[in-house]
Amino acid sequence: MSTEYKTLTPKLIKKLWLAFGFLVLLMGVSYIFITGYYANKYNKATIQQVNANVANHVIQEKFSNASPFLEDGSVNKQLFGDLMHDMMAVNHSIEVYLLNDIGEVLYSVVLDNDSSVTKTVALAPIKKFIAADGKIFIEGDDPRNPDSKKIFSVAPYSVEEKKGFVYIILTGEDFLNISENLLSSYFKQLGFGATLLTMVFSAIIGLLSIWFLTKNLRIITNTVIRFREGDLNARIENPEGSDIEVFAHSFNDMADTIVDNMEKMKSVDTLRRELIANVSHDLRTPLAILKGYIETLQIKKDSLSEKEKDNYLQITHDNVDKLSNLINQLFEYSKLEAEQISPIKEPFSITELSYDLIAKFKVIAQKKEIILTLDCPEENCLVFADVSLVERALQNLLENAIKYTDPYGAVTLSLSKLSKNIEINISDTGTGIPVNEQPFIFDRYKQVDKASKQGSGLGLAIVKKIMDLHETTITVLSKPKEGSSFVFNLPAYQG
User: Is the confidence at residue 157, as pLDDT, over 80?
Assistant: First the structure.
């Protein structure tokens, strides 16, 4: 037993045994009482059927020789005394009652010896018995015990303009006492035998039933233990064939989710290490430049010309901007990744926003002699999104496009109106992105131009996070030396 169920908790086995034992005990007790009830009913029905015509025989044999009533109208007690003497010689438990036509008891031998005898008997069972010619099982009133019902035989009489019934109780008090004693003895014998057989068969059936019912549970428990002990490939085979299919599927799904999360955690940890290493490098570079030029200004301030001083200060200023931009991007990305930013969606004109951004970046583009243009329909395009987040995404995309486009190239921001969306496309004629790099460009701190180390590598990662918040996707179309296009859709405002 302990070996077979070693993977199941003792509490579960105890509960199963207790539940099974209680169920068997309940069934055994129910069987005994149901058997006793129907055995008693069968016995009574047999007695009633056998003695159904007793009352008719009494009327035919006794009343034909002598009237049940005397000349003064009173009951012929001598006749009934002889009748009871003859009948008790055959069946001591029989009780005979003479009733009138409304069910009142006119006479019975037991009236003289028992003052508790009731004076009326309900006629409904009597009439039902007569109508069925005594072929049904029915119980009627017992004048000596008003709270109980007894089997009976009855027949109507009509003598000297007097009508009524001869009502015979077939199982009187003596029969009831004997029957109860025999039934009690029967119950004891049946109960002992049933209990003994129940204990034997319940032990066999219980062992087989619990083994069969817990078979799939033992398999699942063993699989769970294997998974807990480090076997991450442990799965419940053929879950559809299990008796607890939902639990089997749930465990397999849970195990897959855990393994997937573990892989993601490893990937996140690797990316975190790479991010820290790369960001540290980017932080060190402007800091080292700042330190170098500041120290040069301090050491050679008297020997440097005003032009050289201005040049050094400008380099210092540019590196401060780079450092500030990097820190801002790190702060922004960390908030997006920690889901601390929720989009506040509202209708706004993506057309007006695009014009503003083109005007803002035109000066930067002109310095590199890049043509920056906006291609949009004449109709004003409205979208339902977070205006500040969308502006940030477009800024990052335009900065990247200008940064990686050579002089005399072109950068275009295009808007296209679709059925339910507005398509935004930022394209350039820059260096393009190698095919093998394209699946990873939205990963944090993934740079295509690793040699130049330009930028923090977080711009496109921030764009991807903003697209995720808007439940949309961004697609890149690019070929090396042919430029790149970044395309995404925003829902058009249906105002």
Answer: yes
Assess contact for 475 and 398: CB atoms under 8 A: no
pLDDT tens sequence across 423-445: 999 999 988 888 888 888 887 65
> Which is more confidently placed, 109 or 189?
109
Say if residue 328 is in the same domain as residue 356. Answer: no
Question: In this structure, what CATH number is given to the domain that contains residue 146?
Answer: 3.30.450
The amino acid that residue 327 corresponds to is I
**How do beta strands 139-141 and 105-107 pair?**
unpaired
How many domains is the chain partitioned into structurally? 3
DSSP 437: G
Instruction: Using the predicted structure, report yes or no on whether residue 397 has a pLDDT greater than 70.
Output: yes
Q: Tell me the average pLDDT across 313-341.
A: 77
Q: Report the largest interatomic distance among the alpha carbons of the chain, rounded to a whole angstrom.
A: 166
The residues, ordered by sequence, that sit 6+ positions from 6 with a Cβ below 8 Å of its Cβ are: none
Q: What pLDDT, on a 0 to 100 scale, did the predictor assign at position 289?
A: 80
Structure-block tokens of residue 136: 């049904």
CA dihedral 106, 112, 113, 119 (to 10 degrees): 30
- Assign 192 a pLDDT band (cuts: 50, 70, 90): low
For residue 2, count other CB atoms closer than 10 A to its CB: 7
> Of the candidates 335, 353, 372, which is a domain's last residue?
335
Q: Is residue 29 part of a domain?
A: no
Is residue 163's pLDDT more than 70? yes
Contacts of 242 (CB under 8 A, 6+ apart): 216, 219, 220, 236, 248
Distance CA 335, CA 350 (A): 25
Q: How confident is the model at residue 194 (pLDDT cuts 50, 70, 90)?
A: low
Q: Which of 335, 357, 386 is the last residue of a domain?
A: 335
Output the domain CATH number for residue 444: 3.30.565.10
Domain identity same for 385 and 365: yes
Residue type, position 125, single letter = P
pLDDT at 309: 82
Q: Is residue 406 a part of any domain in this protein?
A: yes
Instruction: Sort strands 410-417 and 371-375 into parallel, antiparallel or unpaired.
Output: parallel
Does one domain contain both 468 and 412? Answer: yes
User: In the predicted model, is pLDDT for residue 460 greater than 70?
Assistant: yes
Predicted confidence at residue 338, as pLDDT, reads: 65
Domain containing residue 75 = 52-169
d(CA 422, CA 490): 5
Q: Per mean pLDDT, which range of 157-161, 207-211, 229-233 is the poorest?
A: 207-211
Q: Are residues 328 and 359 in the same domain?
A: no
How far CA 149 is from CA of 55, 172, 385, in Å, comes to 18, 11, 85
d(C-alpha 125, C-alpha 149), whole Å: 11
**CB of 274 closer than 8 Å to CB of 461:** no
235: its two tokens? 């799965």
90 and 146, same domain (yes or no) = yes
At 149, list the tokens.
């019902």
* R_g of the chain computed on alpha carbons: 52
